[in-house]
Amino acid sequence: MAERLDKFLASQGEGSRKDVGKWIRGGRVTVNGVPVRDPGSKVEPESDVVEVEGRPVSYQKHVYVMMHKPKGVLSATEDARASTVLDLLPEELRRRGLFPAGRLDKDTTGLLLLTDDGALAHRMLAPKSHVYKLYRAQLDAPLTREDCQAFREGISWGEERYAPARLSWEEGNPRIGLVEIHEGRFHQVKRMFQAVGKQVLELERLRIGGLELDPALREGQYRQLEDAEISQIFTQQNTRKQK
Ligand code: URA
């Protein structure tokens, strides 16, 4: 669909609407090799070749970022007092209007996706999509087979009733719980463990659907996703055995 040239350039993270308007009027932008000086002229993002000072602008309809969320930052787009995951991204990505697809608590680390694709975020988060998220929880007491059974049957916490979840523990270490849930309710993992008498000391998200946190990313680092990785979100990997 045809779009205004200035809006197109801004949406691709090239600069603010004001900046790109200046470049266009200054003759620094070409469309199919021809300088275009009207910021309101129309381009077809899928087929026109737009260049800024001879550098082609590669068109991406949406952006998908995998972040290794560190502790102490909010999964929000802005906050008056605390820093947010958006603050960890460079200006050109922030300008694209990314938002975190789902929340992790301030003290939770691990895999967080940021995108400007509302439809994908909705599909990924809707409980009926059954996209399981895998968490690794360090606990204050060892897990038992009864805990795994309770998770399998569905945990209640106060008024809340959570859908059945898969729980196991790390080989040789029953204080490290591995839990998979397909809902994303407030403090859900912490509350589920609390319901079986365990306190979560550290919580990390390792996987969403079939997409794993890239081990090369250290806390606070991010990278864009490849197309194939985006489809992995919707490919489940239910390979772990239940206790
Ligand atoms: N469950 C929690 O309790 N916290 C998170 O950050 C994510 C899931």
TrEMBL record:
The lineage of its organism: Bacteria, Bacillati, Bacillota, Clostridia, Eubacteriales. Gene3D superfamilies: Alpha-L RNA-binding motif, Pseudouridine synthase I, catalytic domain, N-terminal subdomain, RNA-binding S4 domain. PROSITE patterns: PSI_RSU, S4. The keyword Protein transport does not apply. It comes from Candidatus Acutalibacter pullicola. The keyword Isomerase applies. It is an enzyme of class 5 (isomerase). Pfam families: PseudoU_synth_2, S4. CDD domains: PseudoU_synth_RsuA, S4. This is Pseudouridine synthase. Residues 3-61 form the RNA-binding S4 domain. GO terms for molecular function: RNA binding; rRNA pseudouridine synthase activity. InterPro entries: PsdUridine_s_RsuA/RluB/E/F_cat, PsdUridine_synth_cat_dom_sf, PsdUridine_synth_RsuA/RluA, PsdUridine_synth_RsuA/RluB/E/F, PsdUridine_synth_RsuA/RluB_CS, RsuA_PseudoU_synthase, S4_RNA-bd, S4_RNA-bd_sf. One of its GO terms (biological process) is enzyme-directed rRNA pseudouridine synthesis. Belongs to the pseudouridine synthase RsuA family. Its EC number is 5.4.99.-. Keywords: Isomerase, RNA-binding.
